[in-house]
Write a structure and sequence with these properties.
This protein has 230 residues and is α/β, with parallel strands linked by helices. It has a single domain, classed as BirA Bifunctional Protein, domain 2. The protein is built from six helices and ten strands. The strands form two sheets. The protein has a seven-stranded mixed β-sheet, with helices on both faces. A hairpin with a 2-residue loop joins strand 8 and strand 9. Helix 3 crosses helix 5. The longest helix is centred in the middle third of the chain and has 18 residues, at 105-122. It is globular and about 45 Å long.
Length: 230
């Protein structure tokens, strides 16, 4: 299978609404055949998102309490329940046109999990799957959550990997609607902080191998020029 080129962009810390707008712009162009595959990697300020299947009772505080703490709340069209995004968390938004042999939603989810399992393995973290649940799990708890949207075989949204995440924010929610399961981070598992851009950089070849993409790192200006011309 010939590798498809995929642009990889490290955005740094970006507000959720800004990243969502960028995703939607790229996906609309992709549906018209006017944009390449793109992998956006970034962090968000403290944000809670509710997916299509989210239950309000999984948010354990009221919206006024979130506002007082400067935490944004967004209802979005990805699959899944409720999750937290924040500093120290590597968020990945693969914006891909799935090829004929890739057009399997469950298979796409498993591949996304595998890419994170492989990344964590490179750091010596024992990670895998948990029967009946999506995401990536370790003996210390869930380390990565996933929620995607696929329209006309163009993917959006993606994953959130806890790298140096402040795990106390998870006390505000029932993570992914799963009660009785703990949440962890790479920092907690490895007993040391990690540099976010370095983790993002190490993810690129892993993602490329799993998804048969040829990864080309570019900056945001380069990406904006491409989608602005389309």
């Amino acid at each position: 299978m010939t590798a498809v080129e995929c642009l990889a962009v490290w955005l740094g810390r970006v507000p959720f609404s800004e990243a969502l707008d960028l995703q939607m712009r790229i996906c609309e162009l992709k549906k018209r055949g006017n944009a390449p595959d793109v992998l956006l990697l970034l962090e968000h300020p403290p944000t809670i998102t509710l997916g299509r299947s989210a239950l309000r009772e999984h948010l354990l505080v009221d919206e006024a309490a979130l506002m007082r703490r400067g935490i944004e709340l967004h209802h979005i069209d990805r699959g899944g329940d409720i999750t937290y995004h924040g500093p120290g968390q590597l968020v990945g938004y693969p914006l891909l046109l799935l090829e004929n042999g890739e057009r399997d939603v469950r298979g796409y989810m498993r591949s996304l999990e595998q890419s994170l399992i492989d990344l964590l393995g490179g750091y010596g973290v024992d990670a895998g799957r948990e029967d009946g649940y999506t995401g990536v799990w370790t003996p210390g708890g869930k380390v990565a959550a996933m929620g995607v949207h696929i329209s006309r075989w163009v993917t959006s949204h993606g994953f959130a990997l806890n790298v140096n995440t402040d795990l106390s924010y998870y006390d505000l929610i029932v993570p992914c609607g799963i009660r009785g399961k703990s949440v962890t981070s790479m920092r907690a598992l490895l007993c040391r902080p990690l540099e976010m851009e370095e983790v993002a950089s190490r993810y690129l070849p892993v993602f490329g191998t799993v998804f048969h993409r040829s990864m080309t790192p570019v900056d945001r200006d380069f990406l904006e020029n491409i989608i602005g011309r389309s």
